[in-house]
């Protein structure tokens, strides 16, 4: 399945489903979303149906409830979005991205230290990196 970028409202719904996990009901999703702002149940249902059509979710009935299972894991979608973002705005350069964030004061010295530690831990012993 080819991934496509999700519109913001669909992504907002997917984030809740990823957080809650498989077997989540419409009312459970609405309960979380309502903490930010009031959601109309029919609008939410429309978004859930779109996510099913896009292949992100599958649904099934259990009693009176419609439950949803995840078809696209969060990690896979994030990797897709991050690759697209890096390519589109930073010419596939992680260094350019980090430099831009640093110069705009969007990341701190602490963030850079954590990034350096991450790189060190994940490239240990790999002489090709």
Q: Which regions contain 5 or more consecutive residues with pLDDT less than 50?
A: none
Oligomer: single chain
Radius of gyration: 19 Å
Number of strands: 3
Q: What is the terminal-to-terminal distance?
A: 31 Å
Main beta sheet? 3 strands, antiparallel
Q: What topology, given as strand order, has the largest sheet? A: 1-3-2
Please indicate the percent range of residues in DSSP E strands (runs of 2 or more). Answer: 5-15%
**Structural class based on helices, strands and sheet pairing:** mainly alpha
Note the total helix count. Answer: 6
Average predicted confidence as pLDDT: 89
Silhouette:
elongated
Could you state the order of secondary-structure elements as H and E? HEHHEEHHH
* Residue share in helix: 55-70%
How would you characterize this protein structure?
This protein has helices at residues 8-20, 26-33, 41-53, 74-90, 94-103, 109-123, and strands at residues 24-25, 57-62, 65-70. The chain has 129 residues and is mainly alpha-helical. The protein has a three-stranded antiparallel sheet. α1 (8-20) packs across α2 and α1 packs across α3 (41-53). The longest helix has 17 residues, at 74-90. The radius of gyration is 19 Å and the shape is elongated.
Quick structural summary:
This protein has helices at residues 8-20, 26-33, 41-53, 74-90, 94-103, 109-123; strands at 24-25, 57-62, 65-70. With 129 residues, it is mainly α. It starts with 7 loop residues before the first helix and ends in a 6-residue tail after the last helix.
What's the helix and strand layout?
Blueprint: H1 8-20, E1 24-25, H2 26-33, H3 41-53, E2 57-62, E3 65-70, H4 74-90, H5 94-103, H6 109-123
Helix pairs in contact: 1-2, 1-3
